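Our preliminary data section would be incomplete without showing what the modeling component actually yields. Below, a chain of 203 amino acids is followed by its predicted structure, encoded as tokens that our downstream tools consume directly.
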Amino acid sequence: MEESSKSMIRVEVNGISISPPYQGYVVILKEKGGEQWLPIFIGASEAHTISLLLQGLNYVRPLTYDMFASILEESKASVDRIEVTKLEDNTFYATIHVNTVEGEREVDARPSDAIALALKTKAPIFVAPSVFTEAGMRGEIAAIDPVTPEDRITELNRKLNEAVENENYEEAAKVRDEIKQIEDTVNPRFDEEQGPPINPLED
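Predicted structure:
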């Protein structure tokens, strides 16, 4: 049974960390004004996306969360809040609450996607108390090493080398394209689709 919005606990995105035992990525949600914090394992690309948002960086071309934010704006809708509602079978669930001209609507989403959209639209993030009870922690958060574009490129270069060694050239091409996208985040280059280079730090 999901809990009411009134009982939800307001949190902030504290950062992205790499979990040493599994070399996976974790997004840390910290209780606002409190001691509780919640680690959620997410994928590498989602970690990179959230890290970019936390650092105020933008791709030259819009990413998925940029597109969704633009669609909502053009539709006269807005994100009211996102909620991490439950933990079931070791999987976190989230809901995006959207204000529309016809009233509030709820959209089921993965926490990583919901968090990215909340950061993009500056919407508040909440966590159900039961989720904190099941998976939350208290006290000081261990030092967080931010996931930078350089970190992601290092990981992708490793995957690229593995793909080439295994003669998996289709996968190698995909990894190479992702490396180029990340490099363009910080050092945008000119091409016919993008037009002249722009400062990636500007909105």
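Strands lie at 9-19, 24-31, 36-42, 78-88, 91-100, 103-109, 125-127, 137-138. Residues 84 and 94 are 4 Å apart (CA to CA). Preliminary results of this kind motivate Aim 1 of the renewal.
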